[in-house]
Amino acid sequence: MSGPSNAPVIIKRKKVIVAGGHHGGAWKVAYADFVTAMMAFFLLMWLLGATNEKQRKGIADFFNPTVPVNKVSGGGDGAFGGDSVFSEQTLAQNGTGAESRQPSEQTAARGMVGAGEADEPEPDEYAAAREDAILAELEKELAGIGGESMVTELLSRHVTSRITDEGLIVELFDREATPLFDDANVPTDTLTELLGAISKVFSRVGNEIAVQGHVAALPVVRRENRVWETSTERAKTTRGIMEGEGIGAWRFQRVTGFADRRPVTTNPLSGRNNRVEIILLRSKV
User: DSSP states of 119-146 as a string?
Assistant: First the structure.
């Protein structure tokens, strides 16, 4: 019987190759890119269907910022690109203004697009900024109207103006030697000339108007105190004169008399409190 063999034990393994094995992970990357592209495409289609033209323009401008330049310019500078604030292209888009003295109810005077619906209104902050510029331009024109004529002198002596949240307030007040109304509450020539100049400026826009009458207080010893009647009559007279100057009756929203309840001086008896306030109201948004 022979002894144990010292020959080494050899284990042989065979490698089995299956046909059609994978060729790497490149196809997975390509498939992921395809799915991503399809998702982006469907999101784009949804975005186009869910937004209006103005919103789409805002999105496009966000991804393509440029220096703001007025597309249509009259060759000048300023907020309106060289255009006048009283032109059809400027004020008509705000629902006011026209080339005629009295804006009509037609679509051309209200910025409408044909017989269809008007363009969507601009954001409130833009509309407010535009109207502030228009009111400021009107106030500037009112201050310089008439050139070197007597009307300019009367405006400087009897008229003050200011822009508030309510609109452009034009205040006409008495002076000691030149009142606006006589003792019989009849308007003087001074008031008539002033209202003619103011009406000329207000005719350039179609905003509504409010008229407020104020008078100075009377001594308590007076037998009859007609401050309420007097202030109301003066406001009504002012409205009538402006209508005669071409301001449409439909533009007057209210005509009010405040008697002596809102003095502008510390002395309620002062003649400076005899005044009429004409307010060019802001457009209703």
Answer: PPPPPHHHHHHHHHHHHHHHHHHHHHTT
Whole-structure pTM value: 0.57
pLDDT tens for the 285 residues of the chain, in order:
555 566 777 777 766 665 555 556 788 888 899 999 999 998 888 888 888 887 878 877 777 766 554 444 445 555 455 555 555 445 544 444 444 444 554 444 444 444 444 455 555 667 778 888 888 898 888 877 655 456 677 777 889 999 999 999 999 999 888 899 998 889 999 999 999 989 999 999 999 999 999 999 988 766 678 899 999 999 999 999 999 999 999 999 999 999 999 999 999 999 999 999 999 999 875
| Contact (CB, 8 A) for 215 and 230 | yes
- Written as one letter, the residue type at 263 is P
Domain boundaries, the chain: 28-62, 131-281
Q: What is the C-alpha R_g of the chain?
A: 38
User: In whole angstroms, what is the distance from residue 77 CA to residue 95 CA?
Assistant: 24
| CATH entry, 131-281, from 3.20.20.70, 1.25.40.10, 3.40.50.2000, 3.30.1330.60 | 3.30.1330.60
Q: CA-to-CA distance for 115 and 172, rounded, in angstroms? A: 42
* Cα distance between residue 205 and residue 139, in whole Å: 13
3-state secondary structure of 27: helix
